[in-house]
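Structure ticket #2291
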Amino acid sequence: MRILGKGKTALSIKEVYKEASLYDDANKEEYNNSSDELTVVSPGIPPHNILVQNTKNLISEYDLFYEKMPFTVWISGTNGKTTTTQMLQHLLKDKGSVCGGNIGTPVATLNSEAKIWILETSSFTLHYTNQAKPNIYILLPISDDHLSWHGSFIDYEQSKLKPLSLMSKNDIAIIPSKYKDYKTNANAYYYNSSQDISELFNIDRSKINFKEPFLMDSLLSLSVTKLLDNTLDYKLMNSFVQDPHKLEEFNDAQNRLWVDDSKATNVDATIQALKTYKENFIYLILGGDDKGANLIPLFETLVHYDVQLYLIGKNSADLNELSKKFNINAKKVDFLKKAVEEIDKDYNTSKASVCMLSPAAASLDQFSSYKERGEKFKEFIHSFCY
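Resolution: structure written out below.
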């Protein structure tokens, strides 16, 4: 067997299949293009990669380990899949569940004795999956993301929808109403909003402490427990603690509100984050690597907010042009440290305001990860505002 890639996923497969050979662009000359050997592709390798294009017998890690999978819940969508996965694991861990996939433990090394696998599932993995299917599929809304990997929004969307075509009548799918005409044999529930989910599964939203966008994540998690054993444990749900860098609020020495939303690596995540602060004046830091996404919907949203933009990163020039086009006040500052410094100077204490890092872009143009970007954001605030 061959494995394309040498990252975390590839190395975890190698732990199980010790005789497998690892390949990536660094040793592509050694790769036999004419071989019919079973080849597992790591999800980070795009379909336009030369090794992928020249491979005949290609499968995903999900296909490889499908036969050892217990009952599985797959969670996908553009935003919220990590939180929903973590929330559901929080609800089901005492019932023998483990979680992994795109977060935490790779599929190859998940405990096969566990009763339930909860898998955060990326569009990359789904693109290469043609056999494996979930018992329950939770699909959050889909919006522009990873277009440089998939090539187009349609291809990205089709990857997210692929599990529906593989599922049987004994399986369950909870998916946006937009896709109600997509052919599937699964028992499908359709929603447009959090209210729809609460009505479908008779969940009392007033008993849940989370606000949007996390309210939808919590409702989807509770819907699974309702389906599995007809339980709704509101107390346990409310005890869930959110990860850092997702609408993480804190105040500086002058009691000004700052929000670390560095996890907002695409346009829709930032649009959803803005809704939380629609009554505030927003000092908003935008920019990074937008991965080829269409930025216009973001600016069509921003015109309805009282906002001042601070533009950083690889796409700051493009964002600056869009700011002019949509007549939105903006400063092209290029770097996060400068953005925090400028906000500290510009802050108007006469308004109910929030200072927010919600970049609508990936971080790798200037940082090692969204986590490092968020930590640096806090460091800079401490330098200028304490």
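Closing remark: The radius of gyration is 22 Å.
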